[in-house]
Amino acid sequence: MKLIERAVLSTVILLSCTALGIAQAPGQPPAGRQGGRGGPPRIVLSVTTSAWPDGGEVPMTYSMRGDNKSPAFDFHWSMGNNPADAPADLKTYVMTLRDMENSTNKGPTDTLHWAAFNIPGTAKGVPMGLAGGDLPDGTRNGPGFNAGRGGTPAYAGPGAGPGPFHHYCFEFYALDTKLDLPATVSRDDLLKAMEGHVIGKAAYYGRFHAAQ
Known about the structure:
By secondary structure, the chain is α+β, with helices and mostly antiparallel strands. It has three helices and nine strands, in the order αβββββββαβαβ.
């Protein structure tokens, strides 16, 4: 093949590849990989609250130093950038609150403030100020500060004292099963029972410390 013909052919191939790249929307994965590694798009869970922005400072009313009311959260399911129905096999949600800075028993594990499980899969969110114990809709308050101290399992909000902010993580798990567990279940056994059943997960963060 003559040198000029090779140059023309290379230019055509380059222009063709460039055109394919332009056809792909900016910031989007290559065609056929929206689900990652060539898989189909996945339905994913996310949560929102109007109580504070994700990563922002938790208002006093939601802390143990204030009114100690659990915040309201809304559940959202989406596929890519589009809203979607919840998975057909969704049965329940689990919600936990952890202090990321505090250590448990001087170990590497963070401190679990609160957990609630068997929140109905039909729920669109959780209201502000969940009561303790077992609730009429089947929600069961489980391990956390109150249960660990022999009290009624219930929400125990952020409570860091003066000094650096502590970071608190609200985690949400969507399960394809209902958990047959007592309110006195340990944190480890709760997580173990969830193994193999998590079909969605989301997290929401907040910072808190006492002003003085």
